[in-house]
Amino acid sequence: MKIIAIMTDFGYSEYVGIIKGVILKINPLVNIVDITHGIEKFDIRQAALVLYSSYKYFPHGTIFLVVIDPGVGTERRGVIIKTRDYYFIGPDNGIFSLVENVEKVIEIDHELFNASYTFHARDIFAPIAAYISKGACLRDFGKESKDIVRVLNLAKKRGRKIYGEIVYFDDFGNAITNIPSKFLNIKYGESLRLIKDENVYEIRFVKTYGYAREKELVCLIGSNDFVEISVNKGSAKEILKKKGPIILEL
Amino acid sequence: MKIIAIMTDFGYSEYVGIIKGVILKINPLVNIVDITHGIEKFDIRQAALVLYSSYKYFPHGTIFLVVIDPGVGTERRGVIIKTRDYYFIGPDNGIFSLVENVEKVIEIDHELFNASYTFHARDIFAPIAAYISKGACLRDFGKESKDIVRVLNLAKKRGRKIYGEIVYFDDFGNAITNIPSKFLNIKYGESLRLIKDENVYEIRFVKTYGYAREKELVCLIGSNDFVEISVNKGSAKEILKKKGPIILEL
Amino acid sequence: MKIIAIMTDFGYSEYVGIIKGVILKINPLVNIVDITHGIEKFDIRQAALVLYSSYKYFPHGTIFLVVIDPGVGTERRGVIIKTRDYYFIGPDNGIFSLVENVEKVIEIDHELFNASYTFHARDIFAPIAAYISKGACLRDFGKESKDIVRVLNLAKKRGRKIYGEIVYFDDFGNAITNIPSKFLNIKYGESLRLIKDENVYEIRFVKTYGYAREKELVCLIGSNDFVEISVNKGSAKEILKKKGPIILEL
Predict the structure, then answer these.
(1) CATH number of the domain that residue A134 is part of
(2) Residue, of A65 and B212, whose pLDDT is higher
(3) How confident is the model at residue A205 (pLDDT cuts 50, 70, 90)?
(4) Measured distance CA(B21)–CA(C56) in Å, rounded
(5) In chain C, is it the N or the C terminus that has fewer CB atoms within a 10 Å radius of its CB?
(6) Is A31 touching B (CB cutoff 8 A)?
(7) Residue A151 domain-assigned (yes or no)
């Protein structure tokens, strides 16, 4: 049974249910799985990182329907991306920035659809996902294209300085960065300097929250294999306040 | 595979999971789909409009289990509604106000069930949905009835004035009205007057959020095909504050 | 089709989606059902009571994957519990306190898994659930153990006094206790005394919210068959403020 995995910023609204209805009307035998609908409204960068941390855990052949779409109804285009293992469908606004092994990009021809101006997830992207799950040919939906929009990169390391960013804060208030775990080649318990908005914090690198003192600001390797800045039984968001560039000095 | 689509105001609670357990115990082969569980607590009018905007996107034969039920355990009755294409099950308190093409109404005989006083979704409505998905006869659950409770109508148009209401605010803070899109027969970019609580607002009719200036109050056709009052990258709720009657002057 | 039912404190995050991806990669034919992901962060006692109120409604053979895991990455062990009718998998920190009819406990050998330090749900518990749904032998995952951690008991009754606790507040602000319904052998409409934090409240026992006066503090039998303290169209949480021990005097 084919899987369509959905990620949106629709929250707890009926828009998610409507999308599922549309898909099941076209292919009643597909397995629809929610990744999350809790992406912060319009946060394309968060969507890009969350997608990157999630998609490889799904079976080969999974079709990802990703809709964080502040520009719906304007000139931004929609795309279908075929990679070595997966399909991705959604607006081409940067949400697919970190998708790897791209083999083919199709620019969706919106004229093929009788679409509303505000709900392309329902009128264009969901039907395409459903038809692909039934074996449709990608070229039926538009012409091939060279590239996709990429707005987020992984962090860079120069010497003992890592130039990254806090991409978003998760539900627990942890600051999720774009710094791959392998950049942090130091030992558990060692300290490093975190520089943000001209503030400097001395923080420890710990194995898990459990090894941090209560309310201590620490960093660790998150479950997405990126560096995460956290406060044990507290919220890093309250301390660091906003997303944006950071420097880690090892 | 039969589909049972669920809409409630239970939020992120285990009550939704329990309902699914009950259904799967009776019919392990049914496909359960969440529409939304984010209806505002006890908001019957919102439920009626959201259901109306959602149900037609589901495959024929879908069974809708809808539970927004402030009067559970009191005298309000439960109903099964068979329409031309669908089944609807839930309390008869107005949540089915906008359901169309009604062919048959069954008043549920609560005496048939050993029900708690507070959780008819689990004890009465979910089992009925599951049995219907297995082909049960509707008359087994109660006697036929003439009518259902209807508490919400669509807006009325008289001359250049439209008498409608803000039924609810969605997750983005957009004001969702009961004014069908076809009432707004003016051009994109034209202005109209919105009257609410003795305040008058001059607002523009735009194609999508993308065409609004930042923080501008505008109206547009929402994805549910109703008029929606919105603030681009902001919240109409902060300006309009409360649900209730409005007048649009074209 | 086997059912895996999931309960976590992950909220609306992608962690839930990742878990589902992992499961479907191992067993594409399993039916995954969400119980709730709205358990309060790290609230083991709430998880124990909610699980107890939910699990018996699921079909025999259901596999429960329960992850509320403040101690992930520290010394706390993971367990598989086989009961007469079900399987339970998760950290052994008290979330299974009220599980009944235990037949076998397996202490999971973490060395068998190449696990991260922060996401055992993905790396250990979800794969085990998926393999069990395919018929794996429990002993493959570790050695048998005698006992599980239990941190929550049901309330005790002595004479006309019931010694219980408010375990959590639900989405509606109702105070959910560990007092079984049968302890409240009085008539609807009768009053009783609620003692909490040295405050004494005179409250009525009512059949349903519908029988309470607006804003009146009442108690009733909740849908989970436990005593619940509620305010009609209001929030008991605003009055009682915090979880913890209470005494009911009949």
Answers:
(1) 3.40.50.10790
(2) A65
(3) very high
(4) 9
(5) N
(6) no
(7) no
Q: Indicate yes or no: CB of C221 within 8 angstroms of CB of B18.
A: no
Q: Pull the structure tokens for residue A160.
A: 């003992």
Is B116 close to C221, i.e. CB distance below 8 A?
yes
Gap from A30 CA to chain C (nearest CA, Å): 11
Mean pLDDT confidence for A230-240 = 91
* Residue B206: strand, helix, or coil: coil
If asked whether residues A35 and A129 sit together in one domain, one would say yes
Instruction: Tell which wins on pLDDT, B244 or C116.
Output: B244
pLDDT at B57 over 90: yes
Residue B5's closest chain A neighbor by CA? A17
Residues of C in contact with B28 (CB under 8 A): 1, 3, 31, 59
Does residue A230 share a domain with residue A181? Answer: yes
Total number of domains constituting chain B = 2
Residue A171 has pLDDT above 80, yes or no: no
A32: contact with B, CB 8 A cutoff: yes
Does B118 reach chain C within 8 Å, measured CB to CB?
yes
Asked if the structure places residue A181 within a domain, the reply is yes
B11/C38 CB distance under 8 A: yes
Q: What angle, rounded to 10 degrees, do the helices at A126-133 and A14-26 form?
A: 40
Is B180 a member of any domain? yes
Tokens of B206: 């735009």
The rounded Cα B4 to chain-centroid distance in angstroms is: 16
The nearest CA of chain A is from the CA of C5 a distance in Å of 14
Q: How many CB pairs under 8 A join B and C?
A: 95
Identify any residues that bridge with C91 across adjacent strands, giving them in sequence order.
Answer: C78
CB-based burial label for A106 (10 Å; 0-12, 13-18, 19+): buried
DSSP-assigned states of every residue in A139-189: GGGEEEES---------EEETTEEEEEEEEE-TT-PEEEEEEGGG--S-TT
Test A209 with C70 for CB contact under 8 angstroms.
Answer: yes
Task: Choose from B6, B8, B35 for mutation: most chain A CBs within 10 A.
Answer: B35
Residue A84 scores a pLDDT above 90: yes
Element (H, E) at B103: strand B102-108
Sort strands A31-36 and A161-169 into parallel, antiparallel or unpaired. unpaired
Residue C212 domain flag:
yes
The single-letter DSSP state of residue B151 is -
Same domain, yes or no: C97 and C163: no
In chain C, what residues touch A221 (CB-CB under 8 Å)?
116-118
Of C103, C124, C145, the last residue of a domain is C145
Look at residues C92, C126, C145 and tell me which one is the last residue of a structural domain.
C145
Residues of A in contact with C11 (CB under 8 A): 38, 171
Which pLDDT score, from 0 to 100, does residue A75 have?
A: 82
Q: Is A221 on the interface with B (CB under 8 A)?
A: no
Asked if the Cβ–Cβ distance from C41 to A5 is below 8 Å, we say no
Which residue in chain C has the smallest CA separation from B38?
Answer: C171
Quick check: A214 pLDDT over 90?
A: no
Same domain for C47 and C161, yes or no, is: no
CB contact under 8 A, A24 and B38: no
Question: Would you place residue B30 in the very low, low, confident or very high pLDDT band (cuts 50, 70, 90)?
Answer: very high
Segments in chain C below pLDDT 70: none
Q: Tell me how close the Cα of B97 comes to any Cα of chain C, in angstroms.
A: 22
In angstroms, the Cα distances linking C106 to B124, B161, C88, C103 are 38, 71, 10, 10
